[in-house]
Design goal:
It holds the Pfam family FemAB_like. Keywords: Transferase. This is GNAT family N-acetyltransferase. With about 400 residues, the protein is an alpha+beta fold. About 35% of the residues lie in helices and about 25% in strands. The chain has two domains: about 160 residues, Gcn5-related N-acetyltransferase (GNAT) (Aminopeptidase, 3-Layer(aba) Sandwich); about 180 residues, Gcn5-related N-acetyltransferase (GNAT) (Aminopeptidase), CATH 3.40.630. The protein has eleven helices and 15 strands. The strands form two sheets. It has an eleven-stranded mixed beta sheet with strand order 2-5-6-8-15-9-14-13-12-11-10. It has a four-stranded antiparallel beta sheet with strand order 1-3-4-7, with helices on both faces. Helix 2 runs antiparallel to helix 9, helix 4 packs across helix 5 and helix 8 runs antiparallel to helix 9. The longest helix has 27 residues. The two termini are about 45 Å apart.
Length: about 400
């Protein structure tokens, strides 16, 4: 019997998709993060954070067979390149200089979220490749300049090669909870003991400065994060953006939705001095939601924490490093999490024992001459990036004799 036809659909809102069906498909993937949950993507839309008014036009793509979802991805038409963290401004400028329009372009990504993970949800390899082929075909039909898949998984990159997309490599800095003996660190002091003397001394000095300033930390997770704590967090988050001359990407309503719809994904650190809160950092977690009192909708294979947002109302020397790195790392060790991802960019993170890892994106450009030029550029960039990563790794913060065991 012939296999039933696969139907391609384009949706102008994530709300048009069934949340349970989306999350069930997500649970089948190899690299699951909380940022691909339907609740997260829907909150970006309903909070007016990633909507046409901000330059994000949802065009979620799905493949259906016999009424069942077999593949799906978050796809957006973009009028700019803000909030992506894979920089193609030079490509856009080159298009403009030749009298061509680079925008709108198409983007398969989670808005404002530079976290590696599955972007092409699919029941199998065939469906994943078919989904990406459908995305390219749709871009051609819409006469778009390009399609970009950002921070994809290994499976996404394999599908991209099958379809003929160009590959690009960038670098992030991640921490792994692996002690020199191959097990996990027992506590924060055990972790510090694995570092070189200068790095260990620097971290202790920075934490001492924070303590000597009278600052103490408390943390709350999931539904234990009070409404007042969420409110204080947003004050800090918003102020940090405004101090840099920009409004925040994410609205207050977005975080209200996070507190309501997926509280299990969040861990909040609050710095206090003299009984008053002065700074905060918000960490995402993909550990089993049931352990935080939530519903276990996904089977996360490797409990990981993600550094996401930070803000302060007062300036204290080294407070940012303590709130965003040392307190989360100590928490991860105490609670047995396997990794902490520090977000986009930042060589300074190596001094805090976050090591360089390659992240990947894939690109299709409609204009043949520009595609050829970009492909040549990416070949040179990739060679330079490989050398850059090797150079970074040569300056490891870990003592050579006690360097953590490599990934299995």
């Amino acid at each position: 019997m012939a296999e039933k036809a696969i139907i391609t659909r384009v949706h102008t809102s994530p709300l048009a998709l069934d949340a349970a069906e989306w999350n069930a498909l997500l649970a089948q993937q190899g690299h699951v993060t909380p940022f691909m949950r339907h609740e997260y993507l829907a909150a970006l839309h309903t909070s007016d954070s990633a909507v046409p008014a901000t330059g994000w036009h949802a065009r979620y793509l799905t493949l259906e067979q016999e009424g069942r979802l077999v593949a799906a991805c978050p796809l957006y038409l973009k009028e700019h390149s803000y909030g992506e963290y894979i920089f193609d401004w030079a490509w856009a400028r080159a298009y403009q200089e030749h009298g061509l329009h680079y925008y709108p372009k198409a983007l398969i990504a989670v808005p404002f979220t530079p976290v590696p993970g599955t972007r092409l949800l699919a029941r199998d390899e065939f469906a994943r490749t078919a989904l990406l082929r459908a995305a390219v075909a749709w871009c051609k039909e819409q006469s778009l300049s390009s399609l970009h898949l950002l921070f994809g998984s290994d499976e996404d990159m394999a599908a991209s090669r099958n379809v003929g997309l160009m590959q690009r490599t960038t670098v992030q800095f991640h921490w792994n909870n692996r002690a020199p003996d191959g097990g996990k660190f027992r506590d924060f002091e055990h972790f510090l003991g694995a570092l070189t003397q200068d790095k260990r001394k620097k971290i202790r000095q920075e934490q001492r400065r924070v303590r000597d300033a009278g600052v103490r930390f408390r943390w709350a997770r999931s539904t234990d994060i009070a409404v007042a704590d969420w409110e204080f967090f947003y004050r800090c988050y918003e102020r940090t953006y405004l101090e840099h001359g920009n409004p925040p990407y994410l609205s207050r309503t977005f975080f209200e939705r996070m507190a309501q719809d997926m509280p299990d994904a969040w861990l909040l650190f609050i710095a206090e001095r003299g009984g008053q809160a002065i700074a905060t950092s918000l960490i995402a977690i993909n550990a089993d939601p049931s352990s935080a009192g939530g519903q276990n909708v996904l089977n996360f294979p490797s409990p990981t924490a993600y550094g996401r947002y930070w803000g302060a109302l007062e300036r204290v020397d080294s407070l940012h490093f303590d709130a965003c790195y040392y307190q989360p790392l100590a928490w991860c060790i105490a609670h047995g999490l396997g990794a902490f991802e520090g977000g986009a960019q930042g060589e300074h993170k190596m001094a805090r024992a976050l090591m360089p890892v390659a992240t990947h994106s894939a690109h299709w450009l409609a204009h043949p001459a520009f595609a050829d030029a970009v492909e040549r550029f990416l070949e040179r960039e990739d060679a330079g990036m490989a050398a850059y990563v090797e150079e970074l790794r040569a300056h490891t913060p870990f003592r050579t004799a006690t360097r953590p065991a490599p990934n299995p």
